[in-house]
Structure formats: structure tokens, C-alpha cells
TrEMBL record:
Its cofactor is Mg(2+). Keywords: ATP-binding, Magnesium, Metal-binding, Nickel, Nucleotide-binding, Nucleotidyltransferase, RNA repair, RNA-binding, Transferase, tRNA processing. Residues 242-340 form the HD domain. PROSITE patterns: HD. InterPro entries: CCA_bact, HD/PDEase_dom, HD_domain, NT_sf, PolA_pol_head_dom, PolyA_RNA-bd, tRNA_CCA-adding_enzyme. PANTHER family: MULTIFUNCTIONAL CCA PROTEIN. The keyword ATP-binding applies. Belongs to the tRNA nucleotidyltransferase/poly(A) polymerase family. This is HD domain-containing protein. The keyword Zinc-finger does not apply.
Amino acid sequence: MNLREIAQTIAAAGGRLYLVGGGVRDQIRGHSAKDLDFCVTGLSTEQFWTHFPNAFLAGRAFPVFRLPVDGHVAEFALARTEHKISVGHRGFQINASEGVTIEQDLERRDLTINALALDVLTNEVIDPFGGQNDIHNRVVRAVSDAFAEDPLRVYRAARFAATLDFHIEPRTTALMRSLRDELYALSAERVFEEVKKALGSARPSVFFMALKTAGVLDVHFGEIASLVGVLQPEKYHPEGDAFEHTMQVLDASARLTERVEVRFAALVHDVGKGVTPREKWPSHHGHEALGVPLARRLCQRLKLPSKWTEAATFATAEHMKMHILHRMKPVKVVDLLMAAQRNPLGVEGLAVVGMSDDRGRNSPNAPSPNAASLDALWRVIQAVNGAAVTTDAIGKQFGEELRKKRAAAVQAWRNREK
Ligand SMILES: Nc1ccn([C@@H]2O[C@H](COP(=O)(O)OP(=O)(O)OP(=O)(O)O)[C@@H](O)[C@H]2O)c(=O)n1
């Protein structure tokens, strides 16, 4: 069945079919939508099933059906109202009877830009809360105080600000602030889904800045919040405190790679600066080693995949080497790059963190000679394989011989580059 046939069947049974949520938002923005969600008014669960016997009832808490449309499976939820009656994201009283209107269904939603519906048969846009206007003005705005019924919406609002490059209006920021205590109860998996989407945006800093403005950054990102107000040497860091630097590094990384776990590694690389004793400021000697357990703690709190944790802790431990690579002993360069290659960050990820670190100082186009030479150095090292070991060494000794041959190749490359 195609969508029009489904809409006509629903209309003939006395109901109405609407496209809702992100699909309408993206269409109005002139973007193609990823997944399409539909809302059905005027039909009960039994009536829907009578007309679409092959629909699969997917929801347990409320009626939502899956149905193939033009070869793709789409979701059809019956219009419903929701009222919070107890804690947790399942503690809602739900009414999904056929009398619920599309306007009532939109009212339970988080943001005006998501509280839009498109009548599939007439193409009429239902916009009771000014969502089109907010899309036009690039504003993230809560539909109502019912925003506070789901604390995940704090992260959703910050995430939409980042992915759409919108700004959050003050009343919504105040609602986000009011949900502070409830954020602790969110599952790490749900928070991580939002973080991942935010990291995928062109300017992920917007997400963290929005949380900071709402006074909730420390709930899940305490190690990042601790960087606020931390002084750094002005000569190297004209941008300001360690938090500002981190935000600039994060955005620089987003311009260099699509890999979100590398962007996350860039986010955490300096967390050690948050625990430098104040009397040592603006120096942060040893912040790499201090940062490793902090980076790990942050990853554990968010229950990140182990690859993310390994990449983040590696970047934290090793990022300073990117600034002294040219004067490191060749054998140390070999060790660093081999370790980077074994790590999920990879040599290319390490280069991104190094380059971003150079650019996160009010200099988005700063050259990074060390990071730039990494690629050439890595090719030089890789070109030396086991065949280069001419002695009959085995095991550990073989490895040591290979390491020395590679170090010699690094030295030879340096001599040629001089
Ligand atoms: N905590 C939530 C989650 C979702 N929604 C509503 O449910 C719709 C669908 O949610 P979802 O698929 O998670 O998000 P989208 O808005 O479609 O955006 P994206 O696909 O980018 O996540 C949203 O548009 C919004 O109207 C909500 O009000 N509150």
C-alpha cells in the first residue's frame, strides 16, 4: 500500500492520518527526513487493526503500529495525551482513545519545532504552537511547562540546538535548569544517544554550552564543567580558560573528522587541567597523566563503548607529544605511532586531536607542522617491515630489532626533510 491509500482507508473509516515530529520539521527546513512517524486520529486500536490486519502492534505502553509503506516500514501511533503521574520515563497516564485530537497529541510534545503535523491527504500544516515561526527564526522553544515531564528533553533541547544550529530561548533554558535534579535518574544509554547526535553536528560545542548556560553541565559532564574558570598560560592560550579552549578544540575536530569517537577524544583531552592545584595555575604540568582516570570516569558514567573509552584515554595521555614530536627521539616516535595504531583512535585520530589542539586557541586555521608530518612519518614507519630484520632474532629480540630499524628510518626521513 502506498501512503495515500493508507490515508484514504483511514479517512473512509472516519479517521485522519498525519505526518508528525521530525519528519515535518525536516521537510519545512527543506531537508529530507530520515524516519517518518505518523499519527492517526479518530480510530481505536481495534478499528485500526480491522482495516490494517497485517499491522504489527509495536508499543506496549501506548498503541503504535508498524506497517510497510512503499516497501519501507513506518510507525503509525494513535493520537494520545500523556500526563505524568510517577517518576521515571514510563510513569505516564495515557489516553489514546479515538476522541484525542491532533492538537492534543501535539501538545504533549517537547519542542515547538517538533509539535507540527502535516495532513497526508490535504497537505495542511497543523501548527498550534508556532513551530514554523521558530524554525524560521532558528529557535528551540518548549511547547509548554509539560516539557518538564521528561528530563531527557534537557539533552534533546541542547542536541537540537547543536544539530540544527538554533538557539534556545530563555524560558526553555529555565525549564532545563529546573530539571537538574531529575537528570541523575536518566539512563546512561539515553544520554549517550543524545551526546552521539550532538557530537555529529557541525559545532558540537553548542550542546555543551547550552548545558552550561542552563547550569546542568556538571550532572553528566563534571570533568568538563571543572574546566570552567581554569586559567592557562596566556601566551599559548589567548582564547581564555580551559573550558573555552576545550570547546574550540571540539569544534576544530568536527571540521577535521566525521568520526564521533575522535571528536569525543578531543573533548576530553585536557580534563586533567580541571584538577591542577590552583596555586600552580596557569601552569598545568602533568595534566595528561592526571586526566586519564578522569577521562575514564566520564566514559564509565556515560557507559561508552570500550572503543570510545580507549580512544579518549589515549588522547588524554598522549596529546602533549603532538607538540614535541619534532624533537622526540626517533624510537619514541615509533612507539607513539605504533601504540596509536593499535588504539581505536588510530594515527589519523591522534593527528586530528593534535591539529584541533593547535586550532583551539582563537586560531581556527593554525598550521600544525607536527600533526601534518604524522602521515609521512607513519608511511616511513610502515615501509619498514619484518623483512628489514636481517639477523636471526626471534620473539622479543625480533621486535626490538624492527623497532630500531624503524627508528633509523625516522631519523633518515628527518635528515632528508631538514
Ligand atoms: N522526549 C521526547 C521524545 C520525543 N518527543 C516527540 O516525539 C517525536 C519523535 O521523536 P524522535 O524520533 O526521538 O525524534 P525526532 O524529532 O524525530 O528527531 P531525530 O530523529 O532527529 O531524533 C519528536 O519529534 C517529538 O515530537 C517528545 O516530545 N519528547
